[in-house]
Amino acid sequence: MQENYLAKWLNGELSEEELSEFEKSDAYASYQKLKEVSSTLKAPEFDVAQALESFKEERLDTAPKVIALHPFKKFLRVAAVVAIMIAGSYFYLNSLDESFSTQLAERSEVILPDNSEIILNADSKVTFSEKNWAEQRNVTLSGEAFFKVAKGKKFTVSTDHGTVAVLGTQFNVENRENFFEVTCYEGLVAVIYNNKETKLPAGTSFLVINGKVRDTSKPERVEPAWVNNESSFESIPLSYVFDELERQYNIEVNTQNVDENLLFTGTFSNTDLNMALKSISTPSRINYEIEGDNVLFYAEKTPQ
């Protein structure tokens, strides 16, 4: 189709031969619809004389000066804004971190880009940058996780209590409110707490409760007890034991006349609630009652 066919067709200047050729083109149907729609449009009434008179009455010297943009320049400005938005969206989406979390009474396994493995305990979350992983192996942890780190560059776990740094090892980190514990099961772990570094060889732990560093004994297992569906404690205040019970069973624990600062040593099952309650109450010499998703622990002499 010749370029001037459209203009001649709109003006009714095409010859019969040209019109026949134009009607055979792929674009003809679209132009025909456009012409039909435009023919129905009606321009608004405009009184030229009245508009001219109003214009003369205006004080042109006080009117603000406006410099109109060339249509193409305006288009370029819009295009530039769109380009910036697209570029910004690209960099934003590519900078997003990967995040994995567990709910109450839930566990999950995460495989990192270097095939390092993370097992998340209940009510926990890890975040890391997959895009920058080759340059910096860093994971941010909230909650508790067991790490099996592939050998390679320095691997760090950042928490709001402190930082754990390793090269290739197996270790557990628990980062809860007022509770921070790191246990090394294989290799060597460096814990940085309050700007002080502590080296942990295999079979040692680092524990902080309410801001106070506490002595710990050598762990008896080759991995944390919770990985095997048990929660284990050694001289830990009952309040933290109750918190873990809530996380593992998605229940609410209340107490009455119970000293929650009482130190507890023992283990409870993460799969049998009745057995877990007995494992806590018997050595602590307290009683319990269950009502739906609520558990009440109370002292033996508490009237019911």
Give an overview of the whole structure.
With 304 residues, the chain is α+β, with helices and mostly antiparallel strands. It has three domains: 1-59, no CATH class; 97-228, Jelly Rolls; 230-304, Phage tail protein beta-alpha-beta fold (3-Layer(bab) Sandwich), CATH 3.55.50.30. It has helices at 5-10, 16-23, 28-39, 48-57, 71-95, 238-249, 273-284, and strands at residues 98-101, 108-111, 117-120, 125-128, 137-148, 155-158, 163-166, 170-176, 179-186, 188-193, 196-201, 204-209, 212-214, 230-237, 252-256, 263-269, 286-291, 294-299. The strands form three sheets. Strands 1, 2, 3, 4, 5, 6, 7, 8, 9, 10, 11, 12 and 13 form a 13-stranded mixed beta sheet that branches. A three-stranded mixed beta sheet has the order 15-18-17, covered by helices on one side. A two-stranded antiparallel sheet has the order 14-16. It is elongated, with a radius of gyration of 37 Å.
